[in-house]
């Protein structure tokens, strides 16, 4: 649709992309790890970037008090449909990370994967961190996984991820990729396709990832009124901040009396 910026997460994950995302994604969120975080940090909890319900639906199935928030209305609709089919109720919020205002605070706020990398620049990240701080209880904790995306290899361009589901051939193909080391962004144009005997549906959208220089994320965290309690690797153990994949555990800074 003219005038819509499909690099924005609220617009990227719509239509055919929302329908195919869960079927073609390269990895699935670790529900056990998310459950351990929520159990440790305590409830109520809020999953940011909950998408179409993974792992949120599984966490609700386990009886955890977890709500979800996402910028894509299409993904939230799919989450509601999946939850209803499972006989579960979900509390879902439609908002961007940097504008959310849901009217309550949480003991645990978490991303199930490095969705924070979808924020395209440091300014948007700073706004999102400030909103996370505003929604944390004084004793709450936030979990933010991050990664540094590797450059897309030339031989990966044009190579499709493909599945056949209910007789339809589904594909996601990286077409071209641009990387800006100064801005710390990588934009990869992805082509989504669904091919049936009756029709061929195709669209292309720019997938933007933004990463953080060592120490830069800490500065953004501090400016938002948060503190870094731990930096963890994929195995859940302490990791150096120079690692390519890590997760920051954040807490609120004590409020100073004026």
List its salient traits:
258 residues, alpha/beta, Rossmann fold, S-adenosyl-L-methionine-dependent methyltransferases, 2 domains, seven-stranded mixed β-sheet, four-stranded antiparallel β-sheet, 11 strands
Description of the molecule:
The protein has 258 residues and is of the alpha/beta class. The chain has two domains: 9-148 and 213-252, Rossmann fold; 154-210, S-adenosyl-L-methionine-dependent methyltransferases. The protein contains seven helices and eleven strands. It has helices at residues 9-12, 15-24, 31-41, 56-61, 73-85, 122-135, 216-223; strands at residues 45-48, 66-70, 92-94, 106-111, 136-147, 161-165, 168-180, 185-195, 200-210, 226-232, 245-252. The strands form two sheets. It has a seven-stranded mixed sheet with strand order 3-2-1-4-5-11-10, sandwiched between helices. The radius of gyration is 19 Å and the shape is globular.
- Give the structural class: alpha/beta
CATH architecture of the largest domain: 3-Layer(aba) Sandwich
The topology string of helices and strands comes to HHHEHEHEEHEEEEEHEE
Mean pLDDT: 95
- The whole-angstrom Rg is 19 Å
What's the total count of β strands?
11
Q: How many angstroms does the end-to-end distance come to? A: 50 Å
Strand order of the largest sheet: 3-2-1-4-5-11-10
Helix content: 25-40%
- CATH homologous group name of the largest domain: Vaccinia Virus protein VP39
Largest sheet: 7 strands, mixed
Short overview:
With 258 residues, the protein is of the alpha/beta class.
Topology of this structure?
Blueprint: H1 9-12, H2 15-24, H3 31-41, E1 45-48, H4 56-61, E2 66-70, H5 73-85, E3 92-94, E4 106-111, H6 122-135, E5 136-147, E6 161-165, E7 168-180, E8 185-195, E9 200-210, H7 216-223, E10 226-232, E11 245-252
Parallel strand pairs: 1-2, 1-4, 2-3, 4-5
Antiparallel strand pairs: 5-11, 6-7, 7-8, 8-9, 10-11
């Amino acid at each position: 649709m003219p005038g819509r910026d499909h690099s924005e997460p609220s617009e990227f994950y719509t239509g055919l992309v929302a329908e195919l995302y869960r079927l073609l994604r390269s990895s699935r969120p670790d529900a056990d790890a998310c459950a351990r975080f929520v159990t440790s940090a305590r409830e109520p909890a809020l999953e940011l970037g909950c998408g179409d319900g993974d792992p949120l639906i599984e966490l609700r199935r386990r009886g955890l008090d977890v709500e979800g928030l996402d910028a894509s209305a299409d993904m939230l609709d799919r989450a509601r449909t999946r939850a209803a089919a499972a006989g579960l109720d979900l509390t879902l919020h439609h908002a961007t990370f940097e504008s959310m205002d849901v009217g309550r605070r949480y003991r645990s706020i978490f991303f199930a994967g490095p969705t924070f990398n979808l924020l395209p620049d440091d300014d948007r990240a700073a706004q999102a961190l400030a909103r996370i701080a505003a929604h944390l209880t004084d004793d709450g904790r936030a979990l933010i996984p991050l990664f540094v995306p590797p450059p897309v290899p030339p031989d990966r361009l044009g190579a499709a991820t493909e599945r056949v589901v209910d007789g339809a051939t589904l594909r996601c193909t990286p077409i071209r990729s641009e990387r800006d080391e100064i801005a710390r962004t990588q934009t990869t144009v992805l082509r989504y396709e669904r091919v049936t005997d009756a029709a061929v549906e195709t669209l292309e959208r720019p997938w933007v990832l933004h990463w953080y220089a060592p120490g830069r994320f800490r500065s953004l965290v501090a400016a938002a009124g948060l503190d870094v309690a731990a930096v963890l690797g994929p195995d859940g153990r302490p990791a150096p901040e120079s690692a390519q994949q890590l997760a920051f555990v954040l807490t609120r800074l004590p409020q100073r009396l004026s």
